[in-house]
Amino acid sequence: xxxxxxxxxxxLVLLGGLKxxxxxxxxxxxxxxxxxxxxxxxxxxxxxSPVLFFSSVVTMISSIQAFGQFNIMTKGGPADSTxxxxxxxxxxxxxNFQFGTASAMAMILFMAILLLTIIQFALGEKKVxxx
Length: 131
Fold this sequence. Notes:
Layout: H1 2-19, H2 23-32, H3 36-64, H4 68-73, H5 85-94, H6 99-124
Helix pairs in contact: 1-3, 3-6, 5-6
């Protein structure tokens, strides 16, 4: 369900990135004799790298913060088998009324997302080609 939920957004972002690639680049590659695969690897992929990087960061963050799907479909699942951090945070705060514990869990979740985003920027930013 999460994949389908995010697929439309990612599709629109990638489509916008594809529309932003200059047609002249492909025309120059055609004149030079580059084939379709060569054009994809040397023009399309490098020019889409900022869009792909943005999509990967946003998808990673939204996947960690998934709540609605689990709340609607399983409510944590049988014997907490589909329980995730955000749903547990919700239950701790609004079912058990342990707001201090829930706040601490939210801060730990924030730090984890921040750390993963920093790692993603450190590893992925070098491979992003800006025109």
